[in-house]
């Protein structure tokens, strides 16, 4: 498996340019960044959240941790991490745990941490554990154009 079919179709339809970066199999965004010799500040990891009976995707640097209390202050106390079974169902064409930071093509609302948008370029998971996609700042901005923005994470 390489890039997920849903993500590939969306990027092609929106004419969003990217480079595929193959790497050794890893099981976390931090390890993917290390394998590709990329700063964790430039790799956007995606965390699936349950909210109001639906789901949303939080996008933040791999070098950060999600501040769930900030999200609860913004969206209400019913926001929580989604269960792995829910994530697998939402991202059925992705490998287990390899969620791309591209919720729009999966019908999810997205919130992007402000710090990731300051980077000159951004890397995202492709939907497997062996490929990253490299996008320029403008391409990443197009991918997340309809996303909410805010400070939702803190550096580890």
UniProtKB/TrEMBL annotation:
Q: Where are the transmembrane segments?
A: none
Protein name (database record): YbaK/EbsC family protein
* Domain called YbaK/aminoacyl-tRNA synthetase-associated: residue spans: 26-142
Matching SUPFAM superfamilies: YbaK/ProRS associated domain
Q: Pfam families this protein is in?
A: tRNA_edit
| Source species, domain of life | Bacteria
């Amino acid at each position: 498996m390489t890039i997920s079919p849903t993500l590939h179709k969306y990027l092609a339809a929106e004419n969003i340019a990217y480079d595929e970066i193959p790497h050794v199999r890893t099981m976390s965004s931090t390890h993917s960044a290390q394998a590709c010799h990329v700063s964790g500040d430039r790799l956007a990891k995606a965390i699936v959240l349950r909210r109001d009976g639906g789901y949303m995707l939080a996008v933040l640097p791999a070098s950060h941790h999600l501040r769930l209390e900030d999200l609860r202050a913004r969206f209400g106390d019913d926001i929580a991490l989604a269960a792995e079974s829910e994530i697998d169902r939402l991202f059925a064409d992705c490998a287990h745990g390899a969620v791309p930071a591209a919720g729009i093509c999966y019908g999810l609302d997205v919130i992007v941490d402000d710090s990731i948008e300051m980077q000159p370029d951004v890397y995202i998971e492709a939907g497997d554990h062996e490929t990253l996609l490299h996008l320029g700042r403008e391409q990443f901005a197009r991918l997340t154009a309809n996303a909410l923005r805010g400070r939702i994470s803190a550096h580890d």
